[in-house]
Amino acid sequence: MSIKTEADMFERELQKLYHAELEILDLNGDLAEAAASEEIRELFAGHREDTVAQITRIEEIFELAELPLEERGSPIMEGLLAEKDEFVNEVESDELRDLDAIGVGTINERIEITLLDRLVLLAESLDHPEAVVNRLEQNRSEAESALRKMQEFRERRRES
């Protein structure tokens, strides 16, 4: 896909976000399974419902923006999945497993927030309907909430 306009960029970034969210369904399941503590397992397992809702909103955005529903892979997401695989296959200590799960989860949420920021900016610039911007902002709010939960876990670990 050749990117010549903001509309092209919006479509590409939306496809990348859609692909990322579909991958995140599996990623969070893998992180929950690999975590040592119940708290971390519940954190990632509990995020599944949010991710499904985010995917639904992205699908609605494709429809509202009159774009074909397609996903596009991203080198950033592939790198994150490789990082997760390395952690799952190599980290043996329970304490380190939880820290690594939180680390991978934090990277994921930051990537998601960055993609959403870019999409909001483009959607506003392209005068997409308010419903598009609202859905993007709702997904961003949920990503920020998930990131805060992970940061709170890190802070509790630091203080203990």
Automatic annotation (TrEMBL):
InterPro entries the UniProt entry points to: DUF892_YciF-like, Ferritin-like, Ferritin-like_SF, YciF
Pfam families named among the record's database cross-references: DUF892
Protein name from the UniProt record: Uncharacterized protein
Superkingdom as given in the UniProt entry: Archaea
PANTHER family noted in UniProt: PROTEIN YCIF
